[in-house]
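Input record (one chain):
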Amino acid sequence: MTSTDTGTTFLTQDAFDRLKAEHEQLTTTGRSEIAAKIEEARQEGDLKENGGYHAAKEEQGKMEARIRTLEELLRNATVGDAPKADGTVHPGMVVKAEIFGEEENFLLGSREGAADDLTVYSEKSPLGAAILDQKVGSTVSYEAPNGKTIEVKIVSASPYKG
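The corresponding structure, as predicted from the sequence alone:
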């Protein structure tokens, strides 16, 4: 998954389906469950000192924010195929790179596209921008936010299967 400057987000069909299912769950059973928690907490009495009520209301706010985020994401999504393994780094690929002499695996794209605990770097981040459209085997460098120059060797790039 990747975002463009126009706000369009490109998603694989799998990522789109996963996010749509999450939205469906939150807007149906999720809302019902949180409403039940709030009502249950109200029954406990004084709302000013009712920790359960305030916790449930906070949870409701976070859930509604997530629903709005998903709605915007899905509304502006363009669904397509995962990038091809052509030896070039593209958004939506798992990249193995050597940084400071150690290999690191990460997804180049958006956290919303990652279904697991894989580290994610945006293609707009300093690292992402440096490796975007580079060939496997290339060594590139970029300036980190702290001003240091960091060298990165691209070891492999494969489409994310999440």
